[in-house]
Records
---
Amino acid sequence: MEFKLDEEQTAIRKAVREFAEKEFTPELALEFDQKEEFPMALYKKAAQLGFTSMRIPQEYDGQGYGVLEDCLVVEEMCRVDPGIGVAISLGNLMIPDVLLKHGNEEQKKKYIPPLARGDKIAAAAFTEPEHGSDITCMNSTAVKTGNEWTINGAKEFITNATTADTFILLCQTDPNAQPTYRGQSLFIAEKGMCGLDATKLHGKMGIKPCVTGSLSMSDLKVTEANVVGEVGRGFYYTLELFDGTRITVAAQAVGMAQGAFEKALAYAKTRKQSGQPIINFQGISHKLAQMAIKIESARLLMYKAAWLYDKEKPNPVATSMAKAYASRAAMEVTDDAIQVFGGYGYLADYHVERFHRCAKITEIYEGTTEVQKNTIVGYLMKQP
Ligand SMILES: Cc1cc2nc3c(=O)[nH]c(=O)nc-3n(C[C@H](O)[C@H](O)[C@H](O)COP(=O)(O)OP(=O)(O)OC[C@H]3O[C@@H](n4cnc5c(N)ncnc54)[C@H](O)[C@@H]3O)c2cc1C
């Protein structure tokens, strides 16, 4: 029972599955979950095999596939381990996507190939302490004097903040613009620039190998060469970016659900109570059936959104439906997986509680589920 992938897509899935199963060992997964460290060596290995640059064109050292192929990779990696899988899949977060669409040739050549090869790490900074779901107005400002921009402000919850080499920052460039989002622009910054500082956040619930941090920009100077696309278009570029990247968050969720489900199914077949495998109890077998239904539904929504993105045109409603549904399915399926394991499910060594802890983030980042539902309702309201 599965969506029919073509021969090349099937081969990609097989290759990444083999890679993840060999490299993301249960011992390593527990180790990285405890030490909250980015798995740099594994990231570089995955990058060498092309798994971190699926949707980057070959002319910039990528693989030249679409969002669907990227989703296959993300799903398989998160199926084997949700923490390492997410960390690796977010290593070159968003910068290639936005530069491919709006960067100039110089920016593309300078920034994309090192990210595609896994030599460098990216971070994309939109969220601020006071602006999360609503990024229509930024407190971070960029002020132009001559050929130079001076950036001041703070960003919160930034993936790869302390490991990244290249950053994009959403800033308010026109504080008087009405509506305010018409006065926002995107800037590229680089590690080591004077005035750009990162602090690591500790104590996350899940995805611990994926490093998260705060950024502070204090009289950070960049030039005109660091402006992405047109001044005043940053908010639009950001929303457009999310139409694609949110589908890969749905893929993370599907992978996590699938991984936990497989563990629960195997356990239910072997764990005996009252003289028989617990899968013989309808309370358990129907739970597993329901888990399978949810995963399959989530996967189809995710594939559909990816297919529309690649073949027709990005469809924000399909993307939001995929992300909202898949992330909820991941929360429910991983919760049920713990229940199937009983008390053992509550222990780290049985490798299902980690899936549940990691799944929660898929309902929060790149737009919470409530924000996705606002997008869906916005579309429904416009229907006759
Ligand atoms: C681990 C992690 C990694 C992250 N990585 C990044 C990153 O790399 N880059 C980046 O820019 N950001 C990142 N984020 C930030 C993330 O995108 C935000 O946390 C998220 O968008 C929600 O913003 P907030 O936390 O300020 O919550 P708030 O916006 O304050 O929301 C609080 C609650 O109110 C609800 N709510 C808010 N507005 C509405 C509304 N209009 N309608 C209905 N409900 C609403 C929300 O759904 C939520 O339930 C990350 C966050 C985490 C936890």
Note: The chain has a mean pLDDT of 97.
---
Amino acid sequence: MANKRWLFILASLVLLPTGLQAGHPAVPAVDNRAVIVVSEVERNLVMEEMREFLHGLHSIQLALARKDMNGVALAARPMGLILHRMPQAMRERVPQTFVQLGLGQHEIFEVIARDAVAKNDVNQTLGQVAEALTYCSGCHDTYRFVVGRTPVKPAR
Ligand code: HEC
């Protein structure tokens, strides 16, 4: 009996912070990410790009599993073009940190593409892909898009 009670207390402690115990999904009620106001067109364009990135990661992963390093390079090259495909007006408006994260992503995927062929080392590429993912999650943790009237002046 005493054992069961301890189990219950332990489970409560683990589940309490997640809100699962009360039947709520484990999401925070407040979204603290910084807002970037975008037009509907801008949002659609960048979101399509984002979904392409997820496809790209899938292609890289598949190629790595087959040790197909040319395939890795082929999939990695377009993944650096996050800022290049962004409309100029939006590029000038987004915060500097957003741009830096985009540039970081660009550089690491260039390195992945180059090293995949030059070094032919699956383990090294795996480490580089992990580094690339820190740019994805770093930016997602920090920013969100809200469709609205886009400000004329850069928000810096
Ligand atoms: C410089 C910032 C930045 C980087 C880097 C970035 N993203 Fe995003 N991504 C965003 C923002 C902002 C959103 C929209 C989030 C929101 O409004 O809630 C988003 C949304 C997404 C979505 C949702 C798309 C949809 O249709 O709803 C996917 C998938 C995604 N990103 C994948 C990736 C992947 C994979 C990477 C890395 C290879 C990546 N992103 C890198 C900023 C970024």
Note: The pocket of heme C is lined by residues 47, 50-51, 53-54, 57, 79, 82, 98, 101-102, 105, 132, 135-136, 139-140, 143-145 (CB under 6 Å).
